[in-house]
Every structure is written in structure tokens, then in C-alpha cells.
């Protein structure tokens, strides 16, 4: 069984057609035809970002990265679900804040299926509280972090981590948030 069939079992229908949106990024107007599917495996509380906000973050991240039309699923899950996925795919059966499952294939409509980003609501909420960060900002940062992993960025080696963190800081600034790596956010 391959990762796609395993992911299909873990996540329901990934096809959700997003409407074309015009985004403004550094005075450039970019037409986007991205498909973004937001899935909730936990009950969304009023403190968590709404689907439209998450979709807007993803669209803006993809515009900043000059990404051609793409499909991404963002799934917000429980600690139990993230633990199961982390154990199954990374051999680390414990909760984590974000997992990314890159696909990187083009569908019949020439849309690149970038993959899935899975956020653990409980871990993100706990981290935001522990780090004295605004919850919305921390959710945005985890979305940025997860999308960058889909695009091939990593932080295993120091030079990779520096490059990825710089890009995260820049994107977060474009989204209107402060440096996520500063202690007092």
C-alpha cells in the first residue's frame, strides 16, 4: 500500500474547488486558481481561525512563492489523530504540531497537487500559550511551516533551518504577523 492510499484512508475527499481570487503581494496583483480544502477533525472553537482565514493564508503563501495553480488540504486534528499519523509515517508515535505529506503531482487539469498539511489543534494551542504567542499568529506560522515542507524546505541541517526560518519570517511579515521566532510574540 502506498502513501497516497494510506492518506486517502486517513483523510476524506481532498477535492474542494476554490474560487478564483485576486491577491495583492508587494503591489503585484496575482490571479490564483488554487484549490484549498480545509478539514476539521476536531470541533473548531471561536479562538481558532476560520476556514476563510486559513485559505487566505495558503493563497498568499503560494502567491509569495510564485506557485502555479495548486491543490492543498489543510486538516486540523486531535492529539490522537496526529499521534497515529506521526507513528505511522514517521515512526514517532507522539503528538506534534504539524505534519506535511507532499505529493507533487499534476492532475488532469494541470493543477499541481502539493499535498496535505495536518495541524494538531491541541499542540498548537498549548505551544501558543507556553510561548506567550497569539493563537491566530501561531496557527498562521504552523500553516506557513507546513506549506514550506510541501515545497521541499526542511530544517534537518543548520543551513536548511536558517533558510527555512528566514523564509518563514518573510512570509509571516507579508501576512501581517511579527517574527515567529522572537521570544516576545
**What order do the strands of the largest sheet run in, or round the barrel if closed?**
3-4-6-5
Counting copies of identical and different chains, the oligomeric state is: single chain
Radius of gyration: 16 Å
Mean pLDDT: 84
- Residue runs with pLDDT of under 50 for 5 or more positions: 1-31
| DSSP strand count | 6
End-to-end separation: 43 Å
Please give the count of helices.
6
Helix/strand class: alpha/beta
Main pleated sheet: 4 strands, mixed
Shape descriptor reads: globular
Binned, the helix content reads 40-55%
Question: Topology as H/E string?
Answer: HEEEHEHEEHHH
Percent of residues in beta strands: 15-25%
Brief write-up:
The protein has 185 residues and is α/β, with parallel strands linked by helices.
